[in-house]
Design brief:
Blueprint lengths: L1 H37 L11 H12 L9 H17 L8 H13 L2 H22 L2 H76 L4 H31 L3 H4 L9 H10 L2 E8 L6 H21 L3 E10 L2 E8 L16 H11 L3 E6 L8 E8 L7
Parallel strand pairs: 1-2
Antiparallel strand pairs: 2-3, 3-5, 4-5
């Protein structure tokens, strides 16, 4: 992290040095050109005061070397020098130096200050040109000067606005990335914990009710609670370890949950009193992300059955083929998946829907027979391309 920051800082300084060298070159070139203008035959610089022409040349050229540090003061000095050059007829170019300074004013200054600089440049150049040239010459020169000054300012403002838009979009993407990561972590924590906690809650309730009459069954239930708790803690440590290290969540969880773990999910549900029939068809290799999502969807669907429908009979079908994974989880328990007294809605269905949406799949969840509470069904499809599995 520190090395990356140092490289970025050095790269930024290199770019700045490159731009400052460009400004210095332009400043020196402008100084030399205006010294030549001061010695031209059309110049009105007094013969006995050549220093005046050099002073004006220095005022026009040298400030350009520091225009990035003080954009508006540099424009004022350069414009003043060019206005003096116009009055002495020693200027033979359409205010390119002022345009060079005005571009950075439009780029770096606030809108109010940059407009003030533009008005100053246009008003000063118009007065100087119109007062020191003939009517025929002044019209063409005046138009050329205003066009160049205006174009420089507009170019600076346009680049400033484009950079501001790019920065805003980058900030938005960064905020969205943080939000997506938070949702991903929350979904993963929910998937890791909810299934085990549901089984623990069911078995704890069983143990509580039969502890006195059937102590052997109560001890068996407590054994399942102990095993499930240990497994949940192991998975939780994996997730928390990744969060502390800042590594990628999906790549660091070991082992990565996949379709091979479905029988274990079914067995856990059976421990909680849900009879599970598991059927997996298809031999196509799935992309890792699709396989993890398929596992989590089945896990959450079974968790909901354990939590809301046990004891019940449940069928889990996973079919792979034709470029998609189709998941069907149905049960014959009560169709309602949120008790009437539950004030905080669950996130299971939301999490499943989000996982499906990542792959532009389809998702449906609801009562199988709405009229008579005849169970609940979850259906999801996850499209994938064969090339994605490599």
């Amino acid at each position: 992290m520190a090395e990356t920051r140092v490289r970025e800082l050095m790269s930024s300084r290199f770019r700045d040095a490159h731009l400052h060298l460009l400004d210095l070159a332009v400043a020196i070139a402008t100084l030399v050109v205006y010294i030549g203008f001061s010695q031209a035959g059309t110049s009105h610089v007094p013969e006995g005061a050549p220093w005046l022409g050099w002073l004006i040349a220095a005022a026009v050229g040298l400030p350009l070397a520091v225009r990035r540090r003080w954009p508006l003061p540099v424009l004022f000095v350069v414009l003043t020098g060019q206005l003096a050059a116009t009055w002495l007829h020693m200027i033979l170019e359409p205010y390119l130096a002022s345009a060079y300074a005005l571009y950075l004013v439009g780029l770096a200054e606030s809108l109010r200050r940059s407009i003030a600089g533009l008005v100053l440049a246009m008003a000063g150049s118009a007065i100087a040109v119109l007062a020191n040239q003939t009517a025929t010459e002044s019209d063409a020169t005046f138009a050329a000067v205003w066009f160049i000054l205006g174009a420089a300012w507009v170019a600076g403002r346009a680049i400033r606005n484009r950079r501001a838009k790019t920065a805003a979009e980058s900030e938005h993407r960064a905020r969205q990335a943080v939000l997506d990561e938070r949702l991903r972590i929350a979904r993963e924590l929910h998937d890791v914990v909810a299934h085990s906690m549901s089984l623990i809650a069911v078995k704890a309730g069983v143990a509580h009710h039969i502890a006195e009459d059937r102590p052997e069954e109560a001890r068996a239930a407590l054994g399942i609670i102990e095993t499930t708790t240990r497994e949940a803690l192991v998975e939780m440590r994996h997730v928390l370890g990744v969060l502390r290290s800042g590594a990628e969540l999906d790549t660091e969880l070991t082992p990565v949950p996949g379709l091979a773990g479905l029988p274990a999910l079914a067995e856990h549900a059976r421990m909680a009193g849900v009879t599970v029939e598991l059927e997996v068809d298809g031999q196509d290799r799935l992309p890792d992300g699709v396989e993890v999502s398929a596992f989590r969807i089945v896990q959450e669907a079974l968790t909901n059955v354990v939590r809301h429908a046990a004891p019940a009979h449940c069928q889990v079908r996973v079919r792979i083929g034709d470029g998609e994974v189709r998941i069907e989880v149905t049960d014959d328990g009560p169709g309602l998946r949120q008790p009437a007294d539950q004030t905080v809605p669950g996130h299971g269905l939301i999490g499943m829907r989000e996982r499906v949406a990542v792959y532009d799949g389809t998702f449906e969840a609801g009562q199988r027979n709405p009229g008579d509470s005849g169970g609940f069904a979850v259906t999801a499809t996850l499209p994938f391309r064969g090339g994605d599995a490599t």
